[in-house]
Design a protein that fits this description.
Pfam families: FidL_like. The chain has 152 residues and is of the alpha+beta class. It has a single domain, classed as Lipocalin (Beta Barrel). It contains 2 helices and 8 strands; from the N terminus they run H-E-E-E-E-E-H-E-E-E. It has an 8-stranded antiparallel beta barrel. A hairpin with a 4-residue loop joins strand 7 and strand 8.
């Protein structure tokens, strides 16, 4: 009996959480360092994530990229669709389109390294969203947590 009640409460919390997580809007700053050996590759970016529903959302990456001492501008948007919930607090979206601002001069192959933090393949954007308290969250991709943010 106790196990059945606990299981029902767990499933109920999980279903309510999934329905409540979208819409989700969160902006945060992250510094990524992909440098190795003698090369230097860093990203200093603000990420604006907006998931309006399971069917639509977008992510904007805005900031600068340093490649072996040379600074580039980064301003890209991912348009997302067909989201599905995986393992409770993970959302996987299809990348419907990628928009590059005319101000963005970061090479595509360099941006793909950053995008690799959130993808298993070029068509999918996956995000883990774990609540810390009422409005604070830890967010990350399949390989690591990248930042914390305040939901607005």
């Amino acid at each position: 009996m106790i196990v059945a009640v606990a299981l029902t409460a767990f499933i109920g919390h999980w279903v309510v959480w999934r329905e409540r997580i979208v819409p989700f809007k969160c902006t945060f700053f992250t510094h990524y360092d992909f440098g190795k050996n003698q090369s230097d590759l860093t990203f200093s970016v603000t990420q604006d994530m907006r998931f309006y529903s399971k069917e639509s959302g977008y992510v904007i990456f805005n900031g600068k990229v340093t490649i072996n001492g040379e600074t580039k501008k980064l301003n890209r948007s991912l348009l997302l669709s067909d989201g599905v919930f995986l393992q409770g607090k993970t959302i996987s979206y299809h990348i419907k389109d990628m928009k590059k601002s005319i101000l963005d001069d970061t090479p595509d192959n360099v941006f793909k390294m950053l995008l690799g933090e959130y993808t298993f393949n070029p068509e999918t954007f996956q995000i883990d969203i774990f609540p810390l308290d009422k409005k604070s969250y830890i967010v990350g991709g399949p390989y690591s947590f990248t930042s914390s943010c305040i939901r607005y």
